[in-house]
Amino acid sequence: MTSCEENKILTNRRSFIITSIATASAITLSAPVIAYVYEDPDRYGDKELKVSTVNKLRQNIRNIILSDPKLGGLFLKLAIQDAITYNAETGEGGPNGNILEKVLSKDAPESLLELKDAAKVLKGLSSTLKRYEITIADIVSFAGSEAIETAGGPRAVIQLGKLDPEKRIMLPNEYYPNLCGQGSDVVKAFKRAGLSERDVALLYGALGSMEGIASSSMNKINDIVEEEENEMGDKEISIPTSFGGPKEIYGKQMGKINTDFLKQVTNDVKLRKKSNLLMADVFYDEKVANYAIKYSENSAGFLKDLPESYARLMKLGTRYTGGKIGNLLGGQEKVIDY
Predict the structure, then answer these.
(1) Where residue 307 sits, what CATH number does that domain have?
(2) In a domain, 19, yes or no
(3) Distance (Å, rounded) from C-alpha 120 to C-alpha 166?
(4) d(Cα 142, Cα 138) in Å, to the nearest integer?
(5) Rounded Cα distance, 247 and 152, in Å
(6) Is residue 174, in this structure, part of any structural domain at all?
(7) Which long-range contacts (CB under 8 A, 24 or more apart) does 324-328 make?
(8) Cβ–Cβ under 8 Å, residues 232 and 249
(9) How far apart are the C-alpha atoms of 229 and 109, rounded to whole Å?
(10) Into how many domains does the chain fold?
(11) Are 63 and 130 in contact (CB under 8 A)?
(12) What is the pTM of this model?
């Protein structure tokens, strides 16, 4: 059973809770959040130090995904859930890493429970890399990017340097739509954040493809890891870190993200029948469907636009502070909206 299927079962059992939340959302969403995304491009030092930090982070995340392929899609979902808390009208919320605290909190909505194991892993990674002083916000955003690449997708170039909030703000549950639930709720959240139906089609196309790749990889996990005996005669699991190719220097990619998922789901939409595919509900939005159909017929365009969409997601509400950009702005913050 996949994560989305488990999520749907839990959601159906307590649908009255979701209804209650939806009723209260208009009131709660208008309340002040006071949580922003601050970024210092020079946080990790000069270029050499920054490259070293990025490589260390990339290697660790790649190893984690290769040892448990289903975490890749969950990392991407964590990043999406974190980012679409952004409110383009108020400038509050956004990809600042608060998602981990929310998922692991006692009042986390059931739609986020599937992300609990992934959140624990990333929080543990933060402790592992403590001496590098990598922020939770950067770990979450980079994990989503690396998950796409590990699944054989294009590399999304994102700016590291997000600062963790001095105080973690627990946003109301309504800021976290069920990514496997009502498509209209997801589309509204994306649009509230300043994104479009095109971004929904791209990111959900990637998620759908990654679910399939993860399932296939789980069946072939013995081809990904190999057992070795250490000097004590005990067996340890070792993940190869280099296969010769430039895209696999940090470990073998699990597959190749493609448009097969989009072709399947848009075929159901064209036939006007309810799809049994996971996360399919968003594609019954007319504009999302139109973009999905376009990309299902243009694989090159999908792979070109996907990393750009993820980069937009991770830049939502960014306020530059410190560093060269901060100096050029005369100490003023610059907010990037989309």
Answers:
(1) 1.10.520.10
(2) no
(3) 21
(4) 6
(5) 9
(6) yes
(7) 324/41, 324/42, 325/41, 326/40
(8) no
(9) 44
(10) 1
(11) no
(12) 0.81
Hey, what are 207's tokens? 């998620």
Q: Could you list the residue range(s) of the whole structural domain that residue 161 is in?
A: 35-327
- The count of other CB atoms within 10 Å of the CB of residue 189 is 24
| CA pair distance 178, 113, nearest whole angstrom | 10
Q: What are the respective helix, strand and coil percentages of the chain, to the nearest 5?
A: 60, 5, 35
Q: Which helix (H) or strand (E) holds 237?
A: strand 235-238
**What 3-state class would DSSP assign to 165?**
coil
Would you say residue 196 lies in a domain? yes
Q: What is the pLDDT along the chain (338 residues), one digit of tens a residue?
A: 555 655 555 445 444 333 443 434 443 444 545 578 999 988 888 878 888 889 999 999 999 999 999 999 999 999 999 999 999 999 999 999 999 999 999 989 999 999 999 999 999 999 999 988 999 999 999 999 999 999 999 999 888 899 988 777 788 898 999 999 999 999 999 999 999 999 999 999 999 999 999 988 876 654 544 444 445 455 444 344 434 455 555 567 888 999 999 999 999 888 777 777 768 899 999 999 999 999 999 999 999 999 999 999 999 999 988 655 444 444 445 544 44
230 burial via Cβ count (<10 Å: 0-12, 13-18, 19+): exposed
* 187 occurs within a structural domain: yes
